[in-house]
Amino acid sequence: MNTPAPDVIRSAYAQLSVTDLGAARWFWADMLGFHVQYEDADSLYLRGTDELTHHSLVLRRGGRAALDHIAYRVRTPDDVDRAERFFTALGRPVRRVKKGDGAHGVGDAVRVIDPLGFPVEFFHEIEHAERLIQRYDLRRGAEIARLDHFNICTPDVPAAYAHYKSLGFGCSETIEGDEHELYAAWMYRKQTVHDVAFTGGAGPRLHHLGVATHESHQVLRCADLFGSLRKEHHIERGPGRHGVSNAFYLYLRDPDGHRVEIYTSDYYTGDPDHETYRWNVHDDRRRDFWGNAVIDSWYKEATEVLDLDGNPQPVSDALLDESAVKVGADGLG
User: Fold this and answer.
1) What SS3 class is residue 77?
2) I want to staple 154 with a disulfide (CB 3.0 to 4.6 A). Which of 67, 203, 273, 326 is the partner?
3) What is the reported pLDDT for 324?
4) What is d(CA 324, CA 247) in angstroms, rounded to the nearest whole number?
5) Residue 307: CA atoms inside 13 Å, Cβ hemisphere, count?
6) Angle at CA 186, nearest 5°, toward 113 and 64?
7) Whole-model pTM?
8) How far apart are CA 253 and CA 246, in angstroms?
9) DSSP state for residue 49 in the 8-state scheme
10) pLDDT tens by residue, 108-140
11) Judging by DSSP bridges, how do beta strands 248-253 and 235-241 pair with one another?
């Protein structure tokens, strides 16, 4: 295809549908430490302490728990137009969202259903906000600094890799079989390990949102806070250290079941000679560097996604199932 791709800067925000806005506020703001930037009767707009943009997470009251869309910021207003042309040339559903008609604080945008079946928005303009990096008096919970990445479940990881490569994304790490079958991949535009990752599985579904904090003790404090309030059932997996990315992590489920990863201590990928690190699917350090088990729900459960009209997208089964490969501590397969 000769149509130029938009120049994506980074993963920017996600919008989730939640069934109980009060419970969602308790989880995301009170416990994780997101700052509430704006709210009305049906929505919360949240951001981390490092972020200059109006929000990195939107929670909207809805009849079902689902992903409404993920959003990438592009470099210029012209890139919004490029996104419209790019996905139109692919024959994908495309909708122009005028300023004031979409998320609060976001300018003109284009919302599409990408070739993987995901609702994705591309925008440039967004209201600025005060960086809160030294407002220690406002910090609480896990002291979330910023949105880091999206992790999506897709039945065809090679197709996901090819699509994001066409958008100019680099690849930091993969999980591959003995014949180089692609089970998972981590891809980036900002100079960290990833803006988006692909977990092979029934999809399209959202596996998790990755949100960054600065230090590992903040991850541990988050786990302690949930335990101290007898809310430890929200902790799904971890704390631990990943093999892929080297990041320290904790996975939690919000009151609607949406999964979030508290994430810190990955590495820089901006050097031009950065090479993709390829993990073998039989290496039990790939998902947890200490060889701890990956529980079945982490592989099998995820959030449904909506189309541009708010209807659930149909889900297809995976071509390759990483959890079917019996690996060390996982005990799966």
Assistant:
1) helix
2) 203
3) 67
4) 24
5) 10
6) 45
7) 0.95
8) 22
9) T
10) 999 999 999 999 999 999 999 999 999 999 999
11) antiparallel
